[in-house]
Write a structure and sequence with these properties.
It is a single chain. Helices cover about 35% and strands about 20% of the residues. A seven-stranded mixed β-sheet has the order 1-3-2-4-5-8-9. It has a two-stranded antiparallel sheet with strand order 6-7. A hairpin with a 5-residue loop joins strand 6 and strand 7. It is globular and about 50 Å long.
Length: about 250
Amino acid sequence: MKLNYKRMGEGEPLIILHGLMGMLDNWQTHARTLSEKYDVIIVDQRNHGRSPHSDLPFTYQAMVDDLEELVDELFLSDINLLGHSMGGKTVMKFAQEYPMLVNKLVVADIGPKAYPVHHQLILKGLRNVPLKELQRRTDADAYLAEFIPYEGVRQFLMKSLYRNDKKEFDWRFNLNVIERDIPLIGEAIHDNVYEQETLFIRGEKSDYIKDKDWGEIKEWFPKAELETLSNAGHWLHAEQPEAFIQALTSFLER
């Protein structure tokens, strides 16, 4: 599948992958900052943003195959990879399958372990929005709020709300496939041991990477290092942008 992407800057290649129900737009501010030193490529993963939708199983193998196709199309090598949440699992699996293409790997607030399904309220909130009846984007917030109490999460989701060719509101992500295959998004990434330099960045207030997970991380990524950002949750790059960029660039530049 040919993915939608934006490219900016010059230098070592740095590919950035967003998380579940996100899109490359979430990373544009960071991409502009990083483009002063890097050839930054921000990507919409399949079933997200402006990349194609597919009814095929929404697996990490499919997302890795998409990424490999993009890397091949752009003639890239010695790539620095950064992925957040679902995107973090994609880049972990890519690095395990194609270590010869990767320079450094950075994973934001996700581990290789299996995660239980925990997005039920978000999915209920999204299904609660009467898309064809909406008059304004802001009207969606009240429907989402019946199931999603956190305004930041609602605002994040509403970034993917747009008017389609019929002038009706729709989601840029493929809600039907995500809802169907949500158990696949939690699957463990345990393919091969990745022997190269890896940085895991977690939010202090997030429970996606717990202290007890470190043994499993080191089993599959023996050169892994861990940075914890204070006063940050799962959306650590948005909550502590300067600290996130500092942790990322310090690792990439050494």
